Predict the structure.
Amino acid sequence: MELDLLVRKCIKALSPYSSARDEYQGKASVFMDANENPYNAPYDRYPDPKQWELKEKIAHLKNIPKEQIMLGNGSDEPIDLLIRIFCEPGVDNIVAPDPTYGMYQVAAQINNVEYRRVRFDENFNLDADKLLRATDRNTKLIYLCSPNNPTGNALEHNTMLKIISSFSGIVIVDEAYIDFSSKPSLLKQLNDYPNLIVLQTFSKAWASAGVRLGVTYASKEIIALLHKVKYPYNINILTQNYMLHLLDDYPKIQNWIHILMAERDLLEKELKALPCVEKVYPSDANFFLVKMNDANAAYRYLVDRSIIVRNRNNLPLCANCIRITVGTKAENQMLIQTLKELKIEFLEQ
Ligand SMILES: *Cc1c(COP(=O)(O)O)cnc(C)c1O
């Protein structure tokens, strides 16, 4: 892979905005360089644009050098930035399996970049050769989501590694659900593959979707490109401080993951026993894709009873499927109890 040849010319030529906090990073007693109002500490000051303190903690936890980390406003920020760095609008294209997380396509469309879908097989396995055949010389990025949303399965490591090693562009592996997976993260392979980018997020296992923090791991060179293009102050002080505290509470997070995985096993058994359920797809995440007798009817029935699931009926390979997130024990029981009564209603008709 030649990173220099993959990057858009305008990004290569870009001299990024240099903020006051970039130019002077040391300690001082008087800051008169950024036109801030000196009252209302600590929120009066612009945040660290590179978030070094936070990155150090994440680097320590994940055993990845902090120079190989970029922090974003959720994973959605790097999903968009990577397209803007590598894909020339109207010329280049992106390839991804189908069905998968909807933001890849939305970000591609916003940037006027062609989005090519390669269908999974009926068990949501990916054929590496089929995916690679969909690429051409203008394919800059491949997005892989593992465990995949909305199907719940983790992709085979060998399939992903074959794609990463055969493709001359960039492969982004979105590991939003990796903490729930029986398969290991690709982070350990990061330094074996200069074209690999791994996305993780605090939105799912870390129970902090409202805080908006996503982590991108890649080579120093790719991370430098992301820093060049992102908004200078993309991570605010509230988020940085909150996350510095939460990272000290890692055992609490691990305990939540543990509880959710036990609840996932229970929910799977109970869902499989329901007459309105045809199939529960295996899950490496904190949700299930469930094939119902009638997804639209089940969805409306649950909404009427104030239980919201995601109707995925209209996605390819997902006819009559709903996606159900694992909740608390009480929430899961409420769902199961409500779905048991759905059976009774059908029988009475
Ligand atoms: C939920 C989810 C994310 C998280 O996005 P954030 O912007 O970090 O909240 C990323 N990728 C996938 C596949 C997801 O399902």
In short: The mean pLDDT is 96. The domain at 3-249 is CATH 3.40.640.10 (Aspartate Aminotransferase; domain 2). The CA atoms of residues 45 and 216 lie 25 Å apart. The pocket of pyridoxal-5'-phosphate is lined by residues 74-76, 101, 145, 149, 174, 176, 201, 203-204, 209, 214 (CB under 6 Å).
